[in-house]
Amino acid sequence: MSIQPQVEIVPFEPSLREHFYTLNAAWLQKHFVIEPIDEQVLRDPEHAVLAPGGAIFFARLGDVVIGTCALLHEAPGVYELSKMGVDEAFRGLGAGRLLLEAAIAEFHHRRGHTLFLESNSSLQPALRMYEQAGFVLQPTIRAGSHYARADVYMIYAPK
């Protein structure tokens, strides 16, 4: 009887940098385009995400990095859940939910008061996962959105 490896969530380390780009580029290119803001964040996560006070998480299955997400620090107490992607070959193993839980836990650890995300209405499985985690769909898109593709704005408001 073989033991199946479990999905493990790990924080950013420089050796994982390339996975932050490749995992996000894969879903962006499949569904949309890589916008200039994406390129900036994905190419230099230490400067764009970590230095301003954010965090990056990776999902690993054994030695294989299968997913990632970022918690961007927007303003004091305000964070954006962003750059979440799971390799299509590994979907259904719970990696997305574990990444989401890690980001929310980090948001609470940092004593944030507002957590939001921007997405697209075509990404229904992701939107359902966000709603199940406590994100609430807002009636309009976010003022000053950085993303041309964003037509969904959600704020974390667990019951």
Largest beta-sheet details: 7 strands, mixed
- Percent range of helical residues: 25-40%
Write down the CATH class of the domain at 7-113. Alpha Beta
Question: What spatial form do the alpha-carbon principal axes imply?
Answer: globular
CATH superfamily of the domain at 7-113: Gcn5-related N-acetyltransferase (GNAT)
In spatial order, strands of the major sheet run 1-2-3-4-5-7-6
Uncertain runs: none
Oligomer: single chain
What's the gist of this structure?
The protein is an alpha+beta fold and 159 residues long.
Keywords, please?
globular, 159 residues, Aminopeptidase, 5 helices, alpha+beta, 30% strand
Summarize the structure in words.
This protein has 159 residues and is an alpha+beta fold. The chain has a domain of 107 residues: Aminopeptidase (3-Layer(aba) Sandwich). Helix content is 33%, strand content 30%. It contains five helices and seven strands; from the N terminus they run E-H-H-H-E-E-E-H-E-H-E-E. It has a seven-stranded mixed sheet with strand order 1-2-3-4-5-7-6. Strand 4, helix 4 and strand 5 form a beta-alpha-beta unit. The mean pLDDT is 95.
Write the layout of secondary structure elements.
Layout lengths: L6 E5 L5 H15 L4 H8 L1 H6 L4 E7 L2 E12 L2 E9 L8 H15 L4 E6 L4 H9 L2 E3 L14 E5 L3
Parallel strand pairs: 4-5
Antiparallel strand pairs: 1-2, 2-3, 3-4, 5-7, 6-7
